[in-house]
Amino acid sequence: MEIFYTALLTFLINIPFGYLRKYTRKFTFCWFLTIHIPVPFVIWFRDIFNVELTLGIAPILFATFFLGQYTGKKLNGFKLAEENGKFQFFECALQKLRS
Q1: Is 83 helix (H, G, I), strand (E, B) or coil?
Q2: Cβ atoms within 10 Å, residue 29
């Protein structure tokens, strides 16, 4: 049951990041962040439920990770502020950090 909960939380945490990834340019720093920010959460979920990353469990967690990203990318239920079809939140946030 612990594997199920870990996989479920992995899937759910990746949906919003997949949605944000849809609005970032591919292979940019922001795109990289939308993929990799959930990784520490997945590690934390594994620690909470005492799930070891074995050869049998790793494919399940990797699949739920990317399935959550894909599901978030396909969501069209609500729109975020767009400019030229790209989500501008990360670019604006990074500009504010630089100044």
Answers
A1: strand
A2: 11
